[in-house]
Amino acid sequence: MILRFSARLGIKTIFAANRPIPGLPKTAVMEICPPGEGEADKRIAALAQPGDLVLTRDLPLAEQLVDSGIAVMDDRGRVFTKENIRQLRSLRDFMVGLAENGLGVERAPSYGKNEFITLANSLNKELSRLNSQLPGIGFEHA
User: Fold this and answer.
1) Most buried among 1, 7, 46, 102, using CB within 10 Å?
2) Which pTM was predicted?
3) Cα dist. 140→9, 10, 23, 56, 95 in Å?
4) Reduced to 3 states, what is the DSSP secondary structure of residue 54?
């Protein structure tokens, strides 16, 4: 979905991970990062620039990027901002602490049609917002 959307708008899309992401077409730009804790996050942080949009579930990475002025959202369409990232990070750290102490943690519900629609709508809104903030730069429509 992301690749079709970005291709239609002429937006360069880069995937960074410690291993190949299944299902990506061979034409996708894939950055394979060195193995190790946080290596993909380091690469994403190094690549991201103001005007970019990063999709991640990783709240520590999201917080770092938001603090650097990068637009960030998760794969469910939630946009991370300076106003909400601290609270979300605090809740995440609390839940990790519970899990580390052997207490069961409720997982996020499965990903379905509603989540897909929310992501698509949020992606459209956030890209439009970013596009309007960059004078003289617009989407290249294919």
Assistant:
1) 7
2) 0.77
3) 6, 5, 25, 24, 42
4) strand
